């Protein structure tokens, strides 16, 4: 990881953490003063965002460390573990929202809430959607999977405030339609569950040592084959470490070539693949002589 990227990741996360805490306090206050159990529950859900923020803050101190003798490939898999944790937190959020909607569908509703609850939900939606967009943009710029995953957790909080907004609006304007809250919560929980699996699927594939897609492998082979002196490329393998690829491949060269010339070809193959086929982080090139007829 480039120098300073860890600090930038933590800066983005600290800003998100501060906003999450402010929104939690706002929604707790608005829910109590505005007599809205939905907003109070939404405030409790917002606390889950602070947990994932802390996970990113702590984890980034470790996965940004350079490679060492005990970890020659670096520490990027720690980021994958944090990303999986965030995905599981999203699953828990989705299940909790869905369960709450089903369990309370027959519950008798108290007196209508006050407008302060409505405005708290609206502020939460706008704030968390802005935080999602900014965080996911920074996550892509910094090539940080965990930051992008945490951005989706911010959006899940915005999603969870939508049924809260509908519930408060319905209670204020249409007291006879309390089911809107439950239907909205179930729909939102499905969106959050989809986002969770979208986040976790690549990381599970990484743990299972899945390789790069065929189009990426083909591109790597084309780049290697274009290097002067390479006669053939075969036995190309790859595996993901976080969002980056480690590649090894065999290239066939003239059997009468000197060791130095063959080494120079291997160096150039590695350099071009890292330069032209992102997101390749490391390349191991095996030199083989072309079999004589």
What does this structure look like?
- The structure is a single chain.
- It contains 8 helices and 3 strands.
- It folds into 2 domains: 5-207, Up-down Bundle (Alpha-lytic protease prodomain-like); 214-289, Cation efflux protein, cytoplasmic domain (Alpha-Beta Plaits, 2-Layer Sandwich).
- With 293 residues, it is mainly alpha-helical.
- It has helices spanning 5-33, 37-63, 77-103, 115-141, 145-173, 179-207, 214-225, 259-276; strands spanning 232-241, 244-253, 280-289.
- The protein is elongated.
- It is 68% helix and 10% strand.
- α2 (37-63) packs antiparallel against α3 and α7 (214-225) crosses α8.
- Strands 1-2-3 form a 3-stranded mixed sheet, with helices on one face.
Q: Work out the helicity level.
A: 55-70%
Which parts are unreliable, with pLDDT below 50 for 5 consecutive residues or more? none
Distance between the termini: 46 Å
What is the spatial order of strands in the main beta sheet?
A: 1-2-3
> Which secondary-structure class do the elements indicate?
mainly alpha
Q: What is the overall silhouette?
A: elongated
How would you summarize this macromolecular structure in one to three sentences?
With 293 residues, the chain is mainly alpha-helical. It contains eight helices and three strands; from the N terminus they run αααααααββαβ. It folds into two domains: 5-207, Alpha-lytic protease prodomain-like; 214-289, Alpha-Beta Plaits (2-Layer Sandwich), CATH 3.30.70.
